[in-house]
Amino acid sequence: MGNTEPVVNTGSGLKIRSSHYKWIALSNTTLGVLMASINGTILIIALPVIFAGIQVDPLAPGQSSLLLWVMLSFNIATTVLLVMFGRLSDIFGRVRLYNLGFAVFTVGSILCSLTWSKGMAGEIELILFRIVQGVGGAFLFSNSSAILTDAFPQNQRGLALGLNQIAAIGGSVIGLVLGGLLAATGQWRYIFLVNVPIGLVGTVWAFIALKELSQKITNAKLDIIGNVTLGLGITGIMLGLTYGIMPYGGHPMGWTSPFVLSELIGGFIFLAAFIFVERMVESPMFNMSLFRIRAFSAGNFSAFLASLARGGLQFMLIIWLQGVWLPMHGVSYADTPLQAGIDTLPQTLGFLIAGPLSGFLSDRYGARLFATGGMLLTALGFLLLSTLPADFSFLPFAIYLFIIGCGMGLFASPNSAGVMNSVPARFRGVASGMLSTFNNAGMMMSMGVFFSIVIAGLSQRLPEAITRGLSGQGLPPVIVHEVANLPPTSSLFAALLGFNPLSKMLPLQVLHALPKHNVSVILGANFFPSLIGAPFMHGLSMAFMISLVLSVIAAIASWFRGRNVEDEETRV
After folding, report:
1. How would DSSP label each residue in 22-50?
2. 62-107 tens-digit pLDDT
3. Cβ-Cβ contacts under 8 Å for 132 (sequence gap 6 or more)
4. 484-513, pLDDT tens digit by residue?
5. For residues 294 and 191, what is the distance between their CA atoms, to the nearest angstrom?
6. Which has the closest alpha carbon to 331: 466, 154, 524, 101?
7. For the segment 424-442, what is each residue's pLDDT rounded down to a tens digit?
């Protein structure tokens, strides 16, 4: 079975065998997923230079929500479209739509780099162009696993999907380092232009080299109602989670806002309607009977929980490093983006070591042991991270990140292989799209969970820390009270963007009335990190413990997938 050569459909009815095609498919799909994943996080590090380039003050009124949309619009668009594109690929051809994804993503990258307006108009343009990128990313993510599953025999899919999955997860970490390098140049357009050469090569290469191996579903109809209800459901929940962390009516967060509540409730209603529709229509976008396959349902559920546990981790690590730890250790705000990206590399190293190895071993011994063990190891890493203070020693921090990286790498590839092996070949496109949807939805929801928990922790302890710190520098009590009672969201985003917000929070006339020594302390690199450090860690430790619990539940779900499954013989 391991030496079976895939059958390649040349498009003219002639079928040939190629022993090299599976490696062509692996290298091309890995390039596409890596490119899209890097793009998903490269902005986190480069946000300061991007906002400076389009001349936006991120702490101005109304900017917090736009800041989130600039960061998350790519992932939201991808998540909403994944299942629909997976279904379309089963109907019209996986390779054809994958090729289209490379082209659309490249066009979106070019448009992002050409953003011409300044201020809020520039932000809106950038958000729209990021959505175009997200459409291309949805084509890539929804088809890459299915193309690999078609190209590789069952006893090699774990390794192939493992390398592809590690490219997806590792790319999100590589994006942080690359974003720091490009941010150091001061040229924000490079953040998007870096994708263009890769996208052009990938588009041409995919068009020439990739061949359609799957049989198209010729008599299927497009499930319009299912597409609409799923899209509205995911969009509603994402909007609710995004605006739920914004201040509202004197509260530090907006979970009591009628808009947030209506979006969340409406989103869940539409998702319930989607499940009902899919069970009734003649040609559903997603065959709900696939959930009768235990390995499929357990694998998707554990993938969702794993993404929920780790999705907000990168944001919080960057806030921790860029806004707190690095300034405490004398690194200037101009240099923190690159250094923060470098300091997260141990996690990438763990991915790169554990991912391919677990994929190779799971091909021989099954997915359950490695996927379950990976989530338990990830839980251990979160437990260890929760013990660190705001001003930690780097060596244990690096070791704990490495442990989390190894755990995620151990889980990702066996879980993907187990899910894709469990479904019949004709459903691989939609199965790939659904798995990616669970991963992306978990990542997006994790942002809301992490931010909410950290903001809750800040709202409990930050006012007292600011009051104590500013009073010690001789500021008037009235001003101290006003600053201490500002929404903690501004302080959190300032830490994410890597700058001291006190220069904007404090009136100039008040600063001018203080002795020069006190002003230099307040506006210095260490003062704001020392104020936010302990309150931030209070919330972050709680978030790590939530991730620990989610990782353990994911491990339990993964164990219940069963021992082995037969891919081609599965019937629904």
Report:
1. HHHHHHHHHHHHHHHHHHHHHHHHHHHHH
2. 666 777 788 778 888 888 887 778 778 777 788 888 889 889 999 9
3. 104, 107, 108, 111
4. 887 787 777 777 676 777 877 788 888 888
5. 42
6. 524
7. 877 777 777 778 778 878 8
The answer to whether 543 and 453 are in contact (CB under 8 A) is: yes
Closest CA to 325 of 308, 342, 312: 342
Query: Which of 165-169, 304-308, 363-367, 568-572 has maximum average pLDDT?
Result: 304-308
Residue 215 token pair: 């049989």
Beta-carbon contacts of residue 87 (< 8 Å; ≥ 6 apart): 222, 223, 285, 286, 429, 430, 433
Question: Which residues have CB under 8 Å from 371's CB, separation 6+?
Answer: 299, 302, 362, 410, 411, 414, 415, 418, 558, 561
- Angle between helix axes 94-113 and 119-151 (nearest 10 degrees) is 160
- Please name which of 339, 349, 348 lies closest in space to residue 183, comparing C-alpha atoms: 339
3-state secondary structure 249-272: CCECCCCCCHHHHHHHHHHHHHHH
Beta-carbon count within 10 A of 545 CB: 15
- Whether 142 and 82 have beta carbons less than 8 Å apart is answered as yes
Burial of 491-522, coded b for 16+ CB within 10 Å and e otherwise, reads: bbbbbbbbbbbbeebbeeeebeebeeebbeeb
DSSP H or E stretch at residue 204: helix 195-209
Residues 350 and 406 sit within 8 Å (Cβ to Cβ): yes
* Radius of gyration for the alpha carbons in the chain, expressed in angstroms and rounded: 24
Residue whose C-alpha is closest to residue 174's, from 344, 326, 320:
344
Q: Is residue 228 helix, strand or coil?
A: helix
- Point out which residues pair with 251 in neighbouring strands: 248
Give the angle subtended at the CA of 429 by the CAs of 415 and 557, to the nearest 5°.
25
Question: Tokens 């730890």 — which residue?
Answer: 325
Distance CA(539)–CA(547), nearest Å, equals 13
311 membership: H or E segment, kind and range: none
What does the DSSP assignment read for 377-422? Answer: HHHHHHHHHTT--SS--HHHHHHHHHHHHHHHHHHHHHHHHHHHHT
What DSSP state is assigned to residue 215? P
The CA-based dihedral angle spanning residues 344, 340, 311, 550, taken in that order and rounded to the nearest 10 degrees: 60
| Interatomic CA distance for residues 8 and 378, integer angstroms | 39
Query: Which of 404, 431, 429 has its CA nearest to residue 548?
Result: 404
The model's pTM: 0.79
For residues 115 and 401, what is the distance between their CA atoms, to the nearest angstrom?
A: 36
